[in-house]
Amino acid sequence: MRTISFVERLELEFYDEVCDNQQQQALPWNLCQQAIALGDADNDDSNELAVGTVSGRLLIYKGHGHTAWRTSHDKLGMITCVTIGDVCNKKQNNVFVLSADGWCNIFHIPPSSPEEVQAPVLSNEIYSMHRQHLSPNSKLLKLVDIDSNGGIIIAVGFSDRVVRTYRWYQYLDGKGGELAILNKWALTAQIGSLSLKPTADNTSFELVVGQPGSTYVTLFQNGHIAYNGPESCKTHSETVSAEVVSNVHTGDGRSCFAMSTLDGSIMLMDYSGEIIYENSVDHQLFGLTKLDITGDGLEEAIVCSWDGETYIFNANKQIAKFQFDERTAAFIAGHYSVSSSNEPCLVYVTFSGRIYIYHNVMLAHVHTVSLIQEIDDSEKVKEFLRERNRTDCSREEKKKLYQWCLYGRKPKLCIE
Description:
The protein is mostly beta strands.
């Protein structure tokens, strides 16, 4: 397993100013795991970070500012889920917030000038443009395009083991709209994650729900449910929650599932249930997601643990580890704009009232590569050897040559 390090990071303030005994005190916010999202909240082609707190505040961070760029004016209840996307199907993004008591709020965030990002305006408060009561006890939220027609559907998982989907419908007069329920599925176990996988004919998608015991459930639009899981598993416990992320591309035109469990199992498996890769770590895992971290157009699966240890693995059975040095309350991976462009990033929310954004987290490769192999792949080195007719050097001769180049110990080779 390769150990990696990232050094470029932003540290954001995550405190609430409260009055205690007539004195102002800064106390760290608390949040639910799904109350954090990355996306283009103000439609300026630069991604922001949205965070919802259990005390009902929505905070939006932008650029390299260390404090919240926008905050909600009203308290929204105990926020359980936050996402950013075209929830109203109007070709523009909004911030969608769900609270534990069932209230949803949709925010439209107007863009700001670059000067405002550096020097915030006097009032940075935002107001909900739509408020509606849905079912209470939400715990998971995902925006999906099941029919591949560009129409966004809101999939919500609830703590009472129910999944519901909603769609925004515009009023005929064009002066508003509301969310209407489309489907409902009742499951037999707690919901660990929501994801999408392509249908057998690759014409549309199906909802996939992570279930305890390293299993998952496929939800069909006709209301039917199919229970699935790996054909065999080294660690199989029916009481341990599991998270699933689908559509992880393998590089040969196919895709597969990534799965992690709370007891430390990680695996990749194809849609038939055959395990491609399986490993086990001594950490409790959560926050499974995917992100192209190598720049080759193929996503790697990324999962975090409560003590900050983060694992990156791919379909080639390669794995890398990054150690974040604090206990982690929430984790997300995606893209965030620090300056002018969106960069791949890892976001950690700590229990001590800090948010850390590791940006520009690019790797040349996930697996471990020796120094000799790296030098061998250099075009300048290949040209150097070709000019001296030494392309047939043995590995031992190359080691001596590279040792001379690096440390000044000249080998007994005819390379002058």
